[in-house]
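Quick note —
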Amino acid sequence: MANIKSAKKRVLVSNARAARNKAVKTEVRTYVKKVYAAIESGDKEAANQAFREAEVKLQKASTKGVLHKNTASRKVGRLAKAVDAMA
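Predicted structure written out below.
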């Protein structure tokens, strides 16, 4: 355990940031799952709506530094491709 005051603060701050990052990542995963669930059900309108919501969450996560910009972009691209492939 840290003894120096600044080191103690860093522990607290890093724990808070880790918790925030974890919450954001979990939320993003949930929205991505909703898109795939809508695709599985065959509901194109629901899939499009879920995709728009997931895209916003992914971009926001990359803006906040939780996800790398290219990772978010790759996930958005794959989701878009999956939604477009619906017949």
